[in-house]
Amino acid sequence: QPVLTQSSSASASLGSSVKLTCTLSSGHSSYIIAWHQQQPGKAPRYLMKLEGSGSYNKGSGVPDRFSGSSSGADRYLTISNLQSEDEADYYCETWDSNTRVFGTGTKVTVL
Amino acid sequence: EVQLLESGGGLVQPGGSLRLSCATSGFTFGTYAMIWVRQAPGKGLEWVSAIGGRGGSTYYADSVKGRFTISRDNSKNTLYLQMNSLRAEDTAVYYCARLDTSCTSNWGQGTLVTVSS
Which of A46, A49, A102 sits opposite B44 (nearest CB)? Predict the structure, then answer.
């Protein structure tokens, strides 16, 4: 089954940009992933579905500041014009025929 | 608007049982696969189980296989998770979620399950 690797933390200044990486394990580089945001004390929120081509589809109400891209086995989430409410944990997720896998999450701190 | 509302969590002793429910609205429930995901205190997300739209296909994480059963009642727009032989390591917030073309697209607010004597 696929494995997703994420950095444990990232930080950036208010108004700047941050790019998070989710890396698919060997043999799974073509997989589609999803990005989810979890603000402190809240349930996760779906952000987008991201394909290996770099094409992505965002969930309802997700601000334009959030975008996705891909390169090989890497899937990226870029947050532009970082806001205080973007301070959260970000998880990537993928799936195959009978299992689903989450990355360990990246904690984003807004400085 | 898609809404998912979990209930049924609580405190249970090791070895005990609990049934979680997820009441849904805002979409045609029977046409969507659904999943359960849990999050232990201070930890990340862990997929638990999935069920197809008609309920004929079910899948489980190895950590719960043989102990948990996922089911659904499409006439009541409700998803269930029957949890038996509960262990301390099952302590977590349990979320139900809707799949849209295999992607987890909507989340409930979660219900806390605590397994402790």
Answer: A102
